[in-house]
Batch of 2 targets.
Target 1
Amino acid sequence: MHPLDMLTGAEIERAVAIARADGRLPDDALFAHIVLHEPDKALLAQWKAGDPVDREVRLQAVPGPGLELVEVVVSVTQGDVREWKEVTGMRPALLMTEAMNAIFTTKEHPEYLAALARRGITDV
């Protein structure tokens, strides 16, 4: 395996499991971003076919509804957490589940429905 090969589904699942097993994320945390954490250029330049590869994965986790984000780097090869950074006052782009919840919640809100009705829209 080349150090820059795309992540496999198994590596993504393992990375999430490692981050969750750490115990610092709530059970309902969402993952907004899961990508290969590229090795240092110097290490990459020295790599030769057949050399072992320590595959690291970078994840962005959203622990809850507030303005907070957790950036994690894990080794799917060694099964450990390499970096853990909690960022307050910031969130990633709106997640699909959040967008869907916003749509459903808005479509049920009485003031929104009344505003649509005033405009002749009754089938939401």
Target 2
Amino acid sequence: RELTVMLLVDLSESLDFGTSTRTKREMLAEIAATIAFAAIQNNDKIGVIFFTDRIEKFIPPQKGRKHILYIIRELLNIEPESKRTDIKVPLEFLTNALKKRCTAFMLSDFICTGDYKNAMTIANRKHDLVAIQVYDRRLAELPNIGLVKVRDAEGEDEIYIDTSSKKVREAQRVWWNTQSNVLKDTLQRSRVDYVSVRTDQDYVKALLALFAQRN
């Protein structure tokens, strides 16, 4: 083997959301750590690009136990400077910074308003790009719990919504389905393999299914 593996890890504030046993950020860190340990077992080099709407930190790929422990510490402790997300930023950085072909795993909730299809297509031509989406089921399905205050995690806006309203719950479902379809279309058009994992599901099964599909 001795490949180069890169992790593109989203640190935006929307990942702090979670309604089951863990937040999206916690699951994302677990998945990233699992891939990192697998890479070391295969004697691969492993590196990380931490991003929001900017590059928060770049750890160049290396081998070794000491290096992997450094990556794990950063996964658990890094504090981003920005709250927002721009998927295009790490993709362009990956394309320009790594000259040798690598396998790159992008881990994010992919809640991003900007267009990143061209950047993803170009990055996947140069490297082998894999997308792993982490999401919470309450983004897809609001519970009927009455009036609640919600905050835009990547902005400052706070509003009250009435979750007992069928119209409100349906609007949320439609928004989520639209977001999911746009993401799916973008990844398919860019020819990027991908998997979506919910915070209350077993991500190991999802990863095994993804790798089986790629083989």
